[in-house]
Amino acid sequence: MKIFKFTSQPFLSDMRKVSTHFIAEEWAKAGHTVHVATVGLSYLTLLKNKALFQRLSVAQKNRFAETSPGLFASAYMPPLHPFSSGKPLLNMLNRPFFGLYGSMIPGYMKTPLAEADVVIFEPGTCLSFYEAVRRFNPKAACVYIQRDWLETIGAAAVLQEMEQRMYRTLDLVITPSSKIAAEVPAPCRVEIVPQAINKDLFDADTVSPYPENTRNAISVGNMLFDETSLRAMAEAAPDVTFHIFGAHFAGPRPANVIEHGEKPFAELIPYMKHADFGIAPYRISPNELYLAETSLKFLQYAYCRLPVLTPDLIEDGRGNLIGYSLEGETDWPGKIRAALTMEKSDRFQDGILTWEEVAEKILELAQASVPAEKAA
């Protein structure tokens, strides 16, 4: 099968991996031809992340590079690109640009797009290309892998409007969240496919990166990062070292907090496996409760048999969550103590899937979703 995937996540070996990377890799391993186009980049990226711009320019700028057998990654980098902003004026100025940006399929994408059996879209700027792709390859199954609300990731209103129009003609929506699935409007077909982990990587023997006789907690990722709560944890437990991957403190950080920055996924695993507990410090509202089902860190922590400190709004489906209040938690020492003393149980791992299983399921559903007139 030939698969084309739009994403906002660059495919670079030393960047933190998310679900889009794992699934694309599994499709290629299974013998499918996979083209992945990272969008939402341009010379504006040079101002925001010079190192990323330079690396993508050398390796993938406006062309596909084979990153592993059968997997081809590219970075679409026109002179400018539209972007979502927290400033209403900028979003208003960007509104017409989103439509223009996605209406013109770049030349280097045209052959793999024309040959694709399945085209995958993800939330965000990727949605700009949907209508053009529908016209360009009307026989392809168009699948939306929706792991987030657009509002949660800060997408501009115009993208939210595009999403609502898209639901009318999509062949399939796949989401790991029952909460998101319940909101997909009829008659759009929707299927729930859970997130997964790479069990082979986690099952491999690793050496602890922590000094002997120390206590260590780990936080992975920067989405909705709650610096206030993490600072309070660290101040309440000076004998615990808090290791932060991906996120950064805006203000001064306690002496027992270490920021590691972005690391290749394989380098994170020993830190997770040998930690005393994990942290999912989301600054969430009831609208973001779907994160309990979509966040990879919850599965990764669970597979490592870790207790997890997280806001008490999040439902505990595995028995390893220790909830704290986002509105003035009064017993941080008690929460830390509970995390340090909870048994690391094998039952936390129950039912966790592999990326191979998830990737296969997505393609099965995509194939089954193609209308008869398209398949003919």
Automatic annotation (TrEMBL):
SUPFAM superfamilies in UniProt: UDP-Glycosyltransferase/glycogen phosphorylase
State what protein this is by name. Answer: Polysaccharide biosynthesis protein GumK
Species per Swiss-Prot/TrEMBL record: Roseibium aggregatum
Q: Which residues form the Glucuronosyltransferase GumK N-terminal domain?
A: 9-175
**One Pfam family this chain carries?**
GumK_N
Q: Which domain of life is it from?
A: Bacteria
